[in-house]
């Protein structure tokens, strides 16, 4: 009888030890899990705070990617000439890419985009080959432009070889100053308008010079951005 009681006490003690070990193990695991949860939550909150800070400090994007916002009643524009005879020019107005190699609507010569001076809506895009083409269609196109139209032009490869005095005069009447000096494989971008009363401030021109050319046979790309005043009635 005494032996049975001793064995019962031993079994009870073992049970107590097992339960105690189980409870201790459960407590340790729960504490570790809680610590990990706290760490994970802390990491999540820290990342959220960093993301929010990054968003708040990220510089704003303006139309066409220009460096600052245009004032009211102005149209944002950005343009670039072609790069050698490899990458075509790009013309963007009011965040609308009008001409580019991606759109597959540019070509060798002078690339032209027409925009409504009152609304900023695109009217037409064309390119005229001034190396192997004929200047006559270009002259007719220039003559057909309506008063109040914004005219943007950019060269690609060569925009001057076939230009004659009549074509240069018509472009000068749009506000260009550099068109009289535009030569073989020069890079040039220009923004003017039909009926403009003064010379346009929006024009960039780099001469083709073998001593300073960035590319073999061509100067570097010229870029330009700005804000075009809306035509008022």
UniProtKB/TrEMBL annotation:
Ranges that cross the membrane: 12-30
Domain ILEI/PANDER as annotated: residue spans: 108-195
Main localization (coarse): secreted
Alphabetically ordered keywords of this record: Disulfide bond, Lectin, Membrane, Secreted, Signal, Transmembrane, Transmembrane helix
GO molecular function: carbohydrate binding
Compartment(s) of residence: Secreted
Coiled coil: none
A Pfam family the protein falls into: ILEI
Keyword Lipid biosynthesis among UniProt keywords: no
InterPro entries membership: FAM3, ILEI/PANDER_dom, ILEI_FAM3C
Any one annotated GO CC term: extracellular region
Family classification: Belongs to the FAM3 family.
PANTHER family per record: UNCHARACTERIZED FAM3 (PTHR14592)
Protein name, entry field: FAM3 metabolism regulating signaling molecule C
